[in-house]
Amino acid sequence: MDPISQILIHFALDLVSVCVLTFAIYYPRHRRRDLIPGYLALNVALFALAAVLGRSGDQGGIALGFGLIGVLSIVGLRSDSMQSEEIAYYFTALVLGLISGLPNVSLMLAALLCTLPLVVVYIAGHPRLFARTLRALVTVDEAVTEPAAIETFVRERLGEPLSWKIQEVDYGRDLTVVDVRYRRPGNARHGGGRRLRAVVRPPRPRGPRESPGETIPS
């Protein structure tokens, strides 16, 4: 098989793998459309980089390329907009691109190696796995640091506190921000509890002199 045909076949495998990761596993669970282009671009870029460096025969270039990938990964992890579980998809997209782009790996072996991280991500991030264990960022309307008071607050409003960490204590505004891991009570179900009502009113028609930024007293 000539190199171009081999690259195209491996690229097809890479596209199938990253589309399964992005559109069949990630998006149905997290619904973050803004990260999809990043996952796809990262995957395809790493596939191209691995394919080029793997066929160059330059061992120093390969080492430099993988070092560059490590630096880019560290920079990506500094993004505050990504949650911990989303970073797992980030690395999976990275690994899929590398595996598919390696020239000395057969197509069957590459397909098997691409399937393994997809299966792990699907199972490890399944919504039914540890469904009662949740995380919340709680703002307490009081500047408090006593462990007993915080645990009581969490237990009364959320459930059994498993672990928590104070993120911010503001004595000026008299509030505390706590990062809480808790277990929902066994009888609690999704969609249960108190229902919130919302009243939707049609917008008031503006007069001929009223602009969107003006406020006319009633």
TrEMBL record:
Taxonomic classification: Bacteria, Bacillati, Actinomycetota, Actinomycetes, Kitasatosporales
Q: Could you tell me which residues belong to the region Disordered? A: 186-218
Q: What are the record keywords, sorted? A: Membrane, Transmembrane, Transmembrane helix
* Family matches, as InterPro entries: DUF4956
What is the top-level taxon of the source organism? Answer: Bacteria
The transmembrane segments are 6-28, 35-53, 59-75, 87-102
Name-wise, this protein is DUF4956 domain-containing protein
Give start-end positions of Basic residues composition bias.
Answer: 186-206
Q: Does the keyword Transmembrane helix apply?
A: yes
